[in-house]
Amino acid sequence: MGCKNCCSICLQCLFGYETNVMLVINNKGVGALFRLIQFLIIAYVRAYQDTDSVISSVSTKVKGNILTNTSIEGVHVWDVPEYVIPPQGEKSFFVLTNVIPTPGQTQSKCPEIPSLVTKCESDSDCIEGQTEVHGNGVQTGHCVQYSDTIKTCEVQAWCPLENDTIIPKPALLGAAEHFTVLIKNNIQYPKFNFRKRNLLHHINSTYLKNCTFDRKTDPHCPIFRLGHMVTEAGEDFSVMALKGGIIGIFIDWNCDLDFPERFCIPKYSFSRLDNKNPENNVAPGYNFRFAKYYKNNKSIETRTLIKAFGIRFDVIVFGMAGKFNIVPTIVNLGAALACLSLVTAICDWVMLTCMKDHDQYVREEHDQIINQFGTSVTRLANHPN
Amino acid sequence: MGCKNCCSICLQCLFGYETNVMLVINNKGVGALFRLIQFLIIAYVRAYQDTDSVISSVSTKVKGNILTNTSIEGVHVWDVPEYVIPPQGEKSFFVLTNVIPTPGQTQSKCPEIPSLVTKCESDSDCIEGQTEVHGNGVQTGHCVQYSDTIKTCEVQAWCPLENDTIIPKPALLGAAEHFTVLIKNNIQYPKFNFRKRNLLHHINSTYLKNCTFDRKTDPHCPIFRLGHMVTEAGEDFSVMALKGGIIGIFIDWNCDLDFPERFCIPKYSFSRLDNKNPENNVAPGYNFRFAKYYKNNKSIETRTLIKAFGIRFDVIVFGMAGKFNIVPTIVNLGAALACLSLVTAICDWVMLTCMKDHDQYVREEHDQIINQFGTSVTRLANHPN
Amino acid sequence: MGCKNCCSICLQCLFGYETNVMLVINNKGVGALFRLIQFLIIAYVRAYQDTDSVISSVSTKVKGNILTNTSIEGVHVWDVPEYVIPPQGEKSFFVLTNVIPTPGQTQSKCPEIPSLVTKCESDSDCIEGQTEVHGNGVQTGHCVQYSDTIKTCEVQAWCPLENDTIIPKPALLGAAEHFTVLIKNNIQYPKFNFRKRNLLHHINSTYLKNCTFDRKTDPHCPIFRLGHMVTEAGEDFSVMALKGGIIGIFIDWNCDLDFPERFCIPKYSFSRLDNKNPENNVAPGYNFRFAKYYKNNKSIETRTLIKAFGIRFDVIVFGMAGKFNIVPTIVNLGAALACLSLVTAICDWVMLTCMKDHDQYVREEHDQIINQFGTSVTRLANHPN
């Protein structure tokens, strides 16, 4: 009997369920407020999606040739293997726009470029083995003639030293603004097993041979004129070409994968990433030095040092995909429900403090004590046991 | 006294708490439905973890040698510094599989490669200074003999021009499929102060010297045969070697850090990232041009241009780690609780609409109006004041 | 009339709202517990922000010169274009610290470096066309003298072969620890349209010319001494310089954008990313081989092979920004509310099980059955219909 009793309690515990006793109140003003707040909450809480970050692969290919005619190099045609560094076509590529070449450098000794710290009167001003942070070599301890009037400390270095005080103006390869770059971008959202590329389905080979990107007429053409990108970033190519800089090519793949796949298309935008503001401008622009090494006739290692100014283009792919998933839906739904209960409290407060006919409210409330599904609690209360 | 009254109101406000008046209903069908839905909700809402994205560092090292015998270069052994570009062993590395070399180029003038736009009859067909998008140099304005029968516009360029119409078949370095690459990958989840590498603890030096990755026998060996990866990506190495392509090496570090650290192991997968579909195939495969620069006997700058076809391997590390955290737990718990209240509503609706003995339900409901903890409201209601 | 009735039902449905019937219980102990748990929940659930991941662009510039004096190369000054690979100043840059040069290599035949597998007695021990995984070329099938006492298989390769058994000690370019690197980092949080760089507003040009990063005195100076970074990572530069390694330069941009922009500043940290633990140490440290190509006097392609040991610095930018947003606020608020309802249940349980005066509680409960806003349910129950 004890067990039977115990079992019945267990069953009651397991299969009984609780429901709240509720009041339904009829007041049009408060009721309207109640529905309005409910609507606002449900309208805001829509973030019912599971999300995933984009995984991306980029390859780039620049096209274009430039002819230059300088006193040092003479007539020279620059092609892609010469002005795109590195040549592999990765997602970050550098296009040469201005150069300061220093041909014929060998390991030897020569006077430093004159500056406040390198000028000297006698050997005692130079310290053997000393390396200046902004110097070009290691001092030998001698003070030698740099020109007829100036003496500087001698350095062991790749001589003759580069003199980069005068930057060619206009930029030697300023015509690079007419170059084009084809950007191939494959993305995937692994969580949703979704893959796509920026060469969209409707783009055919004929179109691609002739198109260049234009926000209005060709928004899906993956071939970009360098000058156009720089202009869209709000910069002047001819100015930027002088000292170089960094341009970001942003590809935004934010997609709602509950919609058909064809609505998931890349959006391109461009902006300058380095600082052109001259306030605290250390090393403005973008440049680096590289060298081509030779053996000269006497088998001595010789190099042509090139100070390369140019524009680095960084292709930056970003995006989040969202797709319906039961878990975040429950989380958001639950949160919304909980908020809705707050609405009841707000409405009660409005009712009790703002309404003039407070007494009538209490009286009406009594008359309609019904539970959630219309069963009158008052009827229950008066029911004979 | 006013203060005392005020204080007691405050205390009542602070230490009083509210509890709902509830009905417990005993109906096995509805009760079972109620418990079932509750169980489903709790089973789904388990995303109680705080998450962090992986931070990763990769280095790679390719090994292997190939002997080729061509008419232009003769017998040549290719080693890593020659066919891996760039040589540094970064997370994206390119392995040469096919080459079109053009030795002995110098800055000079020569006839363009014949095409629809470069063929000409007389000088008037060529415009001085013109650069064709797909051309190799800058036109001089002259129309010259390309061969006995064909005349093309002369260009200032690196001459002789490359003729890439015939791609070596089979691929010159097709044997690259036997090369191996060691991938060293260190990851961390900074939020959880968790670090790990893909050289797992139980892997010793002897094993690593001889193993190669195999999904079944050696799933944790970080040394991969190039051919094996391409096969796993569903491609044929000898076909892909002809024109090149991009293979993604995915390392998935998704981990549940509530489990012991040894369960957090990388999962490798491979897939082709570029498009081999020839529909809208601009620049199919993957190739780029680079040059080796020399000074010839007369100290004139000469270069060997190399059109390099090959496979770029992109190591793509991704993953999210989850770990118990009180905040998302509360968020999810709260949401689940709110959802549970919805269950009550569903059960009430089932009860009132579907049950045949509706009247009896109302009667029973009355008999058991008890609050959440068993105190009978009816008893309360009949209690003399 | 039917319609009027119908309409009134609709209106009642639309503008009626439900409110729970509630008990307020006065018990200081349980009340205090109730308020305490409520407070704890609200204190924990503060993650009311929308978040975005950082998008970053990095450029780096190394400065410094080193003089070395070796038997092979003589006196040689190393400058940035020689020891920084690649030279472009990307976010991952390699600084040479030790080299094994092998000058004058040409395509020819020579004996392999002696090892267990390459030593031989006669031609029959060598297989023509065979490539050893750790070998340097392709075997010709001949067994030749390596030294007076040792015979090894002959290989077709870039000869003479590199002998990397002896690593220069101390490291040839160990003085690289005094080099400095300027790191320029621009970040953005696209969702919040927020941009910033690591050259903070208050840093001027004069300061930047002289500062180097120091966690205490110059925490915002973006110029780092290589040796300082390695020390902060817990390593010894002179040891690490021997065989190389990878150092991570972490820039943490975690920001709360509800605070003013000036509080969003980068935090730098450094740690070694590769493994120095010698347990299962395949290819310890970090090295790679590259070559400089020449044509010798007889126009034969010659190269200087360089086995480069050094430190790769990976700049890793990470961070999340948070900003107030109504959606996550509602989600968290809702969840907190739902949790608060759990508190009621806990307090009820405490009340009913732990309190001594259980009977009195039930009696008191009856006396104070009031709804949430003070309307007594008992009064309602006794009200004449």
UniProtKB/TrEMBL annotation, chains A, B, C:
Its main location: membrane. Pfam families: P2X_receptor (PF00864). InterPro entries: P2X2_purnocptor (IPR003045), P2X_extracellular_dom_sf (IPR027309), P2X_purnocptor (IPR001429), P2X_receptor (IPR059116), P2X_RECEPTOR_CS (IPR053792). GO terms for cellular component: plasma membrane; postsynapse. Keywords: ATP-binding, Cell membrane, Disulfide bond, Glycoprotein, Ion channel, Ion transport, Ligand-gated ion channel, Membrane, Nucleotide-binding, Receptor, Transmembrane, Transmembrane helix, Transport. It is a multi-pass membrane protein. ATP binds at residues 61-63, 180, 287-289, 307. The keyword ATP-binding applies. Belongs to the P2X receptor family. This is P2X purinoceptor. It comes from Sinocyclocheilus anshuiensis. The gene is p2rx4b.
